[in-house]
Structure formats: C-alpha cells, structure tokens
Amino acid sequence: MSDPDRGPAQEPAEPEAGGAARLRTARPAGRRRLGAALAVIAVVVGGGIWALRSPGGGGPDAKHPAAGGGPDAKHPAAGGPTAVEVSTGSCGRGWSGATAGPQVFALRNTSSTAAEVDLTDPATGAVYGEIEGLAPGTTRELRVVLGGGSYAFKCLPDDADAVTGPTVKVAGARTGGPAAVPVTQHDLIPVALAHQRWITAKTVELTDRTDELKHAVDSGDLDAARSAWLPAHLVYERMGAAYDAFGDADIAINGSGPAPADAASAQDFEGFHRVEYGLWHGESAASLRDHADRLDRAVHALRDSWPQVRLDPAQLGLRAHEILEATAQSELTGRTDYGSGTSLATARANLDGTRELLTLLRPLLATRYPELPRLDTWLDRTGRTLDGFAADGKWTPLDRLGRQDRQRLNSDIGQTVELLAPVATICDARRTT
Fold first, then answer.
1. Are 277 and 263 in contact (CB under 8 A)?
2. Distances in Å between the alpha carbon of 136 and those of 64, 67, 82, 116, 295?
3. Per-residue buried b or exposed e for 325-355, using 16+ beta carbons within 10 Å of the residue's own CB
C-alpha cells in the first residue's frame, strides 16, 4: 500500500551507511502534555508548520503549536507580549482582541496557588497552547499563531475548579495553528475496560501455551520444547500495553536479564529468556526443568490474579507509543535474543499488540489526529516488511539480515514510532473542569 496523498518523497529515508538507522525514539520524562502533541502534529502535518518554544522566560513547560508559511510564523508580532492574568477571579484579563497571526502572551499567575493555563476554542474546548505548573507570582510566555475566530483562556488552579475567561474575537483569515480537543479520564475508561477483557483472554492462552512448553521440557523432548517456546513467548509479547499493570510478574515471566553474552554466569535469571538460553545453548532437559516450572507457575499466577488488577486508563496512549519504541531499542539491537534468533517474530508480535490497542483508541483519535490514516499505512508497511523475514514458520535471525533489509526495517520502525508519538500525548488524560 502506498502512503496516501504523499508520493515517493514520503518514503522513509535510508539510514547512513555503516550503521543502523537513527531511530527518533526519545522517551521524555514525566507526563506528555497536549501542547507537546500539537507541536508534534504541527511538524508532521507539513513543511509549513512550526513548533515554537518561548525563549528565556517560556521555560521547558511552555508548549505551543504554531502554523507557518513564511518568516512571520517564526517571529511573533512586534510590540511586546500581551500581558494576561491567570487567577480564579480574573482569568484571561488583559487580552481583548487581536489580528490573526503570531501572538505572544505573557501569562502571570496572580493567585496564591500553582495553575495550568490553556488557550482554547470556547465552543469546542480544543486547546491551541498551554503552560502547566505556573507558580504563584511568576510569568511565562506562550506563543501561538491564531486564525480568525473566538478564543478564551482557561485557568486550572491546583485543587480548584477550572475557570474560563472572557471570549476574545480575533479578526482575519481562519487559518491558524493546530488544536485538539482534550481526552479525559472518562473517555479512556471504556478503552481500559475493553483492553482488560482482551488481556484476560490472552492470559488464558498464555497459560495453555506455557503448559505445553513445560510439558515438553518435563518429558525431555527438547525439540518439542524449542517448537513450543516461540508460540508461548509471542502471546506474552502481544500483551505489551499491560506490562506496567503486571508488576513483578513481568520480571518473572519476561525479564530481559543480563546481556546475552553474560547469560551463562548470571544469577536470578528466569522467565522465557532463561528457558530460551538453555534450549539454544545445549543445556539438558534436567537442568531446565526448574526454570520451566518457575516460568509456568509465574504465568499461572498472572492469570489467576489478573481479574483483581485494573489497568490505568491514563497509561494506554503512552503504551501505544512505547511498545514499538522499546522494540526499536531492544529487539532491533539483538539485546533480547538469547539464542532463538526470533527477534523479528517478537517485533511482529509487538506490532500486533500496538494495533490491538490502537483499535480501541481509534474513536478518540479519529477526530484529533489528522495523521491517523498515514500511521495506519506505515503500520501496514512495517507488518509486510517483518512478514517478509518469515517462511514456513521460521524467522530470519536479526544478524543474518542483509544491509538493505536492515535499513528498510529500521526506517519502517523508526517512521512508525515517530507517528505513534502524538498518540501518547493526545491520549494523556487531562482536566477540563
């Protein structure tokens, strides 16, 4: 499938010769805010879009999309910033009108408590820019490009109800920066419940598959054990969106352990990868029985305890991005290959898990993320690339990929991860009241 409405120029660039593709997969600390998502969307949507950061007083938490088309988009209007008050009694005071184009607001918190402040469309709630954690008595700048229309500042003090300031009319053409309607905790609860049910079914399948692996090891049939290992492991790898909820069970079942070169002498190395190491490094069935038994017991414990666990709805968007981000950092580097040579099969399972979660998030993303069809295209493309490395149930080991295949795979995963980044920020649950 070709990238819709993009043409050849949108095919992924090949990485530099002599090395792996440079995967743009930074994982920021802390919460991913909607302003950051809009900035990512702004960059992705087209070359005329810019993500501006306030110099100096703007601070690292000032996030604001801006639309461009010429030099003026990068240089907000002259004459200094518009001073705007942030407080429960005077939210938005100081701004009474403007002409469409770049705007700079100096937001000053005149209250006694920290607050977040959003610039919104009062009719839809869509956010054009935000500053979070604005301390009492401090001022930070917010820069946006606004089209003609109606806008209002919303002040969200800590431990108090949100207050929306007066509606301000901006004259001029309607073309402005991107905006997105916030996703709330309430929006994400049905997604979490549906994914919880899907994980429940997967824990049953995982238990059955792991029982087969244990039985093969117990009976001394190592060929059967090697055949049973991958199907069991892939079931678990498809469940990546729930790893945080698994707690210590994730370490017991699928902890990556030491570097593969150090696995022989490692202590407290258990789970799928410990069994994998033994099966593909000539260990006897007798030496693997305890490891297979501990793995099987951990899987049974997860299945039995899962009905009492509750997925955190706020983590789902983040996990939709981080599953393949971790794939790029682990499976595509060989870090988690302990002898089976099935890293690419694991990557395919991670892709499946990502798509499962995106299916549930799609109703929230459809009206908020204009690049969703393009993301779908790259997910399809990456799936076809990975499937090309499998034949008759066997997967090409990562270290046997030719240079061109490796470049194509790295590029596909890298582009897909980049397009997934806004999903994490858009689906970060936010206060609206």
1. yes
2. 21, 30, 19, 11, 53
3. bbbbbbbbeeebbbbbbbbbbbbbbbbebbb
State residue 78's pLDDT score: 52
Across the chain, which has 433 residues, the per-10-residue mean pLDDT values are 36 35 30 46 32 33 37 48 95 94 96 96 93 96 95 95 96 82 95 97 98 98 98 97 91 87 81 96 97 98 96 94 96 95 98 98 96 98 98 95 97 98 92 86
CATH number given to 57-179: 2.60.40.420
Can you give the pLDDT at residue 176? 75
User: What is residue 34's predicted lDDT score, i.e. its pLDDT?
Assistant: 52
Q: How many CB atoms lie within 10 A of CB 61?
A: 16
Fold of 185-426: A middle domain of Talin 1 (1.20.1420)
Which residue in 340, 346, 371 sits closest to 358, CA to CA? 371
Residue 220, classed as helix, strand or coil, is coil
Per-residue H/E/C for 222-248? HHHHHHHHHHHHHHHHCCHHHHHHHCH
Q: Rounded CA gap, 38 and 27, in Å?
A: 17
Q: Is 381 within 8 Å of 373 (Cβ atoms)?
A: no
The predicted structure's pLDDT at residue 268: 81
pLDDT at 68: 33
Range(s) within the chain of domains with CATH label 1.20.1420.20: 185-426
The one-letter code for the residue type at 108 is R
* Nearest one of 398, 425, 162, 193 to 309, comparing CA atoms: 193
Q: What are phi and psi of 408, to 5 degrees?
A: -65, -45
What does DSSP assign to residue 81?
A: P
Phi, psi of 50 (to 5 degrees): -125, 150
